[in-house]
Amino acid sequence: MRLAPKPVQTFRDDFTYTNSDEAIKRFPFPFPEDEYMYSVNIEPHTLPGPEGSVYEHLFDIDEHYLSEMAERKQVLAENPKRCLAMDHMDLACWDFIDRAMTTMSQDYPNYFTLEKDGEHWTWENKLLGIKDTFTFGDSRTLPQPPMEYMGCQVQGDIALLDQRDNDLFMDAGIITCPADWSLAFDAGMSFSQWHGPVPLAHEAGIFERALKYLTAIPVDQPVRRLNWTLTINARMDTSPETYPNWGTDRDSVTPENVGEKVYLRVELQVLDRMPRSNALMFSIRTYLISMNDLVTNPEWAKRMHRVMKTLPEELIEYKGLTRYHPILLDWLKQFDLEN
Fold it and tell me: Whole-model pTM above 0.85?
């Protein structure tokens, strides 16, 4: 681990969330070119990745660990339906537990330990003060259902996709920091159904090619992609269920506060085949950076301006940027005067 967890900061109300200089340097800036358009930007998630980067380990644990776990606990207390697992996904949930505990204890031994004695496992999470002994595969021996138990100990949302009939179905997950989508609404939907609202990509055949690729992922060969949007304030939970809490935030952006209030929100999405159930684990690790912090990197500042300047109207509307996009574009221009 390169960034030790900081004390709890908030993603709501007073928004005390901040990035350290080190966190800014390792931020996964998602734009390799000056223009953005949907593509099948999937690549092998070869492990270990570059040391200290967000790609080093399967589960990236960073300085925001305690803050994100506190936020998840609060979201679940407000709406327990943000975590669900259909009955046929029990084995997939145990696959997830095995994958998470095994890799986290290997990658972060100062914080997590796992001892196995046949089917009797002892897991310790020193960051959260958890130590439990249980029988692997027997949900009755855990203090919580398997999806909730492990999902409350990893940063990022987790969906478990059941694969059948050459398609993927969102049949389990713990989703507390989504970018304007709902697990309760998408549960049970197929891959094409939950991507239905995305503009432009269907016409380009993006999802058809992506599904063919994803259903062929073998065990121990995870893949990854970056996705992005913008968020007002450092708010992790922008779900439809909580829209009354954040929908009007988009009207609060002014030329004076745009650098402080607008955040680039990047999702590191990893898909990993589960060996027992054949499900795909879909992890969505979210990173937030304010425009003020982003422009400390001159190359990022220039590129951000150019991407915003050339972003198709359909994507501006789909990503919910319409109300403040002109203000952001004007503000970013000062960092890219030749364009």
Answer: yes
